[in-house]
Design goal:
Blueprint: H1 3-18, H2 30-39, H3 45-55, H4 62-66, H5 70-77, H6 83-100, H7 109-113, H8 120-130, H9 140-148, H10 157-167, H11 173-186
Length: about 210
């Protein structure tokens, strides 16, 4: 089977398995999603959702959240881990949104990357999930699944992203990102991949049976 055909078969199987699965983060606006994604670094989505369930009802705009002190912010997001640096970055991005972007989350990569605490993965998530633009955000799950399926040998997330963008039809970038994440969480786990239950096991060069 040629690589193009194998990729198409993989995508079909993953779509059948994870169709309709989007981000697990809870949010109502692009701003809330941005804050949630920043909080999710080295933290589970479940824990982030617990923190934002307390945070967003009262602080749902850059103005409101940006008015907190560093100490107040740290206390509110402490459960997410790395809370000092995350608090500093969230306060910084809130102030920059107010001062430079009329309190709106920008919809282009360059502007998103100018915000404190926002790297390429976070920017890709915002473009894809919040604004419906074609993008593939590469987190640890996407990175691992892409490598195991033989779709990339990239040494860093950007290289993997570029490889996937070449292989996956542009119209499927956003959905495929979620399929890879859910597959990595549910079956293609870091330590003990559940290959016997995997829908793409016959297409996987890394299968363990």
């Amino acid at each position: 089977m040629r690589k193009k055909e194998r990729v198409a078969a993989i995508l079909t199987k993953l779509e059948e398995t994870y169709r309709g699965q989007g981000t697990a983060l809870h949010y109502r606006t692009p701003f809330e999603l941005l804050v949630a994604v920043v909080l999710s670094a080295q933290c589970t989505d479940e824990r982030v959702n617990k923190v934002t369930a307390r945070l967003f009802p009262e602080y749902d705009t850059p103005e409101k959240l940006g008015n907190l002190t560093q100490e107040q912010m740290e206390e509110k997001i402490r459960d997410c881990g790395l809370f000092r640096s995350k608090a500093r970055n969230i306060l910084g991005l809130c102030r920059k949104l107010v001062e430079e972007f009329h309190s709106e989350v920008p919809q282009d990569m360059k502007s998103l990357l100018s915000l404190p605490g926002v790297g390429r993965k976070t920017a890709d998530v915002m473009l894809s999930v919040a604004f419906g633009q074609p993008a593939i955000a590469v987190d640890t799950h996407v990175f691992r699944v892409a490598h195991r399926l033989g779709l990339s040998q990239g040494a860093d997330p950007l290289a993997v992203e570029q490889d996937l963008m070449k292989l996956i039809p542009r119209a499927q970038w956003g959905e495929a990102h979620h399929w890879f994440i859910w597959h990595g969480r549910k079956l293609c786990k870091a330590r003990k991949p559940e290959c016997t239950a995997c829908p793409v096991v016959d297409l996987c060069p890394s299968r363990i049976l």
